[in-house]
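<amino_acid_chain>
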Amino acid sequence: MTEAAARGQARARRAGDAAGSVDPGTYAKGKIRASGILDSAIALLIDHGYHNLSMRKVAGHAGVRLGNLQHYYPTRDDLVKAMLDRMIEGYLARFEKIRRRDDEPELEFRAIVESVMLDLGKRRTTVFFPELWSLSNHEPHVTQYMDQMYGKYRQVLGGAIARMNPALSPTQVHRLALFVSASVEGHTVFIGYRKPWARETAPLLDMALQAFVWLIRSGRVPE
């Protein structure tokens, strides 16, 4: 099946779902199976690297036929995008819990950064994202999907930053959010899971927060 044909079938299925032609029980089972496929794909990427992330290998790892896999994710691009959506949803849910605490803006910002930076110490985080960074060097679509995912994260950061210093322009807020996210992600190769400087996580987090807060409060950000 060509990629164009697969996408056409996916659109037809979505149209059928929207028309109410799918039994609710069948739909629920389908969601569970699709979720299980995503779990398998993420595990395969973490355990065996991006070069093993083929549709056939994902199907084998998930214990389903290739045709069944393509029923939910017609192409590998669709699968990768769904994997990224799954990962960012977990972070966004965590950020929403922080926001609901109704802390002072600076406390909210600090909690978000601390949550992300401490998460770097988990094997899942340390391996998953760098593997996709590597994949994005070879596949432009992955770069686009990853930027969309990080955009959701930057939007959360930008909201907290703007509340900390309402005098900042939208451009300054955007640049600060980009700088913060890039700075934190860059620590992965140094303080991530089993990385040589993992023991320095706490002081590095403290220094990062001091620097970020100063930049936000001072407003010394290029327009």
